[in-house]
Specification:
428 residues; alpha+beta; 7-stranded antiparallel beta sheet
Length: 428
């Protein structure tokens, strides 16, 4: 737009709660509704846009517009110039009515914004064609936008979305992400990922991954591609990268794509479960389930101590190590995971054996587990009185057996379950 009089920098935009109304409002085609609470900005949708996403403060928006006075006199048009207009939303670069109105629009939407003087040029007007205290109408088409975010609030990592990702989900800090990247200094490529990308946990990135990427990935969606401006503290720091001609304290540019990620769960505070294959649904084994699994257990040096297919056991009954019990009860049928189980949830400080193979003391275990099938134990509310009494007695006997072994923790657990069944005394 260059020297366009009508879109001069109008200063910092004031914080406003007006958009609270707009965020809740559904704008129907052909119906004029208030954008702001005071009615100073109204919007009538001419053509609905695509999807539910809306640009946010700081995003770089691309629009076509035609501006007219209430009597229909046209005073400006980007369409006549064939040149879309670009500005940063919510930064006071345009009249306030635009900052308010554009924030309610979807990509591809065409709408008429009616802006009263206090949301336009007020009592000063603008140039020879917009008199003081004019109410203005703008037919605006939101072509697209680039989301630009200062991720850490210090200017060190500024991300601009070049290509939207899929769905709405984003990885969590514990998840293991896969990214592809190219890093530039003065337009020269200085670093790039290997073919297929690299995997890392954003909560604890390895030394070869720029700190900036750890900040970026948790704000990205699968398939999203972004341009990233990286300050030295999130790049190569005070050392630079001399072998590539990058001096100390250099600011970098990067092209970053989030290829995907594997969900990571943390159980009992320190059992790490990385999902290798996930399934839809919600049903999982409960305590006392009969489960069938395929599993491979190995030590930190790669030694395999357990390798079984179709292994069946009952959960929460000490038929496997406690950590494996916890992991299996987090899986849905058909899911596969890689679990890292510390000694206190495995064979402890004493070690042990599994299928005739020794497990050393204080060993951290790695299990690749697939839940083939399961049959849940009946819950108390699903039983009749006779079944509840039978279950209570069974748990009492198990508690007695653990008590005799001086495993008081498990004994108390079984006794508590016995009491749970007897609490439903209305069935007796």
């Amino acid at each position: 737009m260059g020297d366009n009089l009508y879109f001069e920098d109008l200063g910092e935009a004031e914080d406003s709660s007006d958009l609270d109304l707009a965020e809740l409002e559904e704008f129907e085609v052909g119906v004029e509704k208030n954008v702001t609470k005071d009615g100073g900005v109204k919007k009538e949708v001419k053509t609905k846009g695509n999807g539910h996403r809306r640009p946010e403060k700081g995003d770089k928006v691309f629009v076509h517009y035609v501006g007219t006075l209430l009597d229909g006199t046209k005073f400006d048009s980007s369409r006549d110039r064939g040149d879309p207009f670009t500005f940063e939303l919510g930064e006071g670069r345009v009249i306030k009515g635009w900052d308010e109105g554009l924030a309610t629009m979807a990509k591809g939407e065409v709408a008429v914004l009616t802006c009263e003087p206090q949301y336009a040029y007020g009592d000063r007007g603008a140039g020879p064609t917009i008199p003081p205290n004019s109410t203005l109408k703008f037919e605006v088409e939101l072509l697209s936008w680039q989301s630009t975010k200062d991720l850490n609030g210090d200017g060190g990592v500024i991300k601009t979305v070049l290509q939207d990702g899929e769905s709405w989900e984003q990885p969590k800090a514990e998840d293991e992400v896969r990214v592809e990247y190219k890093v530039y200094y003065n337009k020269e490529l200085v670093l790039s990922s290997p073919e297929g990308g690299v995997e890392f946990c954003s909560k604890d990135p390895p030394s070869g991954v720029l700190p900036a990427f750890a900040s970026c990935v948790i704000s990205m969606k699968k398939g999203e591609r972004s341009k990233v401006s990286i300050g030295p503290e999130y790049g190569f720091g005070d050392q630079g990268l001399p072998e590539k001609g990058v001096p100390p304290g250099a600011r970098l540019k990067a092209d970053l794509t989030l290829v995907g990620w594997k969900t990571v769960k943390v159980l009992e505070g320190n059992i790490r479960v990385k999902m290798l294959e996930e399934k839809e649904g919600y049903q999982k084994p409960n305590e006392g389930s009969k489960v069938t699994v395929d599993l491979v257990g190995s030590l930190e040096d790669g030694t395999v101590f357990d390798d079984r297919k179709g292994h069946a056991f009952v959960t929460d009954d000490e038929q496997v190590v406690k950590g494996l019990d916890k992991v299996v009860m987090e899986l849905k049928k058909g899911e596969k995971c890689l679990a890292t189980i510390p000694p206190e949830h495995g064979y402890g400080d004493e070690g042990g054996e599994c299928g005739g193979r020794a497990v050393p003391s204080a060993a951290t275990l790695s299990y690749e587990v697939t839940l083939v099938d399961f049959e849940n134990a009946k819950e108390a509310y699903e039983m009749d009185a006779a079944e509840m009494m039978e279950a209570a007695l069974a748990f009492k006997e198990k508690g007695n057996a653990y008590f005799k072994k001086r495993n008081y923790e498990m004994a108390v657990s079984k006794y508590s379950k016995a009491v749970k069944y007897l609490e439903f005394d209305s069935k007796y």
